[in-house]
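Hey, quick one: can you model this chain's 3D structure?
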Amino acid sequence: MRLRLLASLALATPAALFAQTAAAPAVKSTSLLAELSSPFILPLWFCSALIVYLVIDLYQNTAAKKFLPAADLETARNYFRAGDYRGAYAWAAAAKGAVPAALHAGLKHAPSGKAAAEDAMAAVIVGANARFQSKIAYLSVIGVIAPMVGLTGTVVGMIQAFAAMGQAGAADPSKLSGAIGHVLHATASGLAVAIPAFVFYYLLRNRVAHQIHELSLVLNDFFRGFPYAHLENVAFEGGEQIAATPDWVAAGRQTQSQG
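Sure thing. Here's the predicted structure for all 259 residues.
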């Protein structure tokens, strides 16, 4: 009797499983491209393109060959060795780059003394660093907002999934897990964008700091032993002093001379 019961169960179990499988609705599969084209993931594509642009632009502009070109350094050294500071000033005014800009500012204020020349070059260095740092800051911003955008897409998607299941009265856990897996693509996409953004942020920040330090050392070499005393009465083009004696001092002198 027991053998007959076991045999009937063995035959009935595959049939029941087959019937359940045939009755269950087919799970609708979605391609990965469709998953990554949702409204909340599209902004992350833009952030990814912006990261690529910023990284390429910053790496090219902070390369030693472009930021501290050997040709510009040699040209400036030749002017300084020959004592042709007017020629160096004219060359620096026409050339482009951080080195000519800093030399132009230093020579322009050299007649006012060492402190004025160093302050002028420091201002150029700070400006060059600020331009780079403003671009690098965008990588930090992307690293912060990308996970937030992805998380927003996930939360909105889960709200919609639970609302749809509540209206339909569905109790199938597989449908809920499928909906959650669908919306988690947004969170994963946000993290996939944020992590490289932060990595390149720190790499490029250190790279810029190194190049700015090298620029400071180069300028120190140019103005080591600079003959400031011989340029006291020199006025470079565009570097003329515009500050005059206070008018009340001039008026007082005139009054004393008349008295």
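One thing worth noting: Residues 34-232 form one domain.
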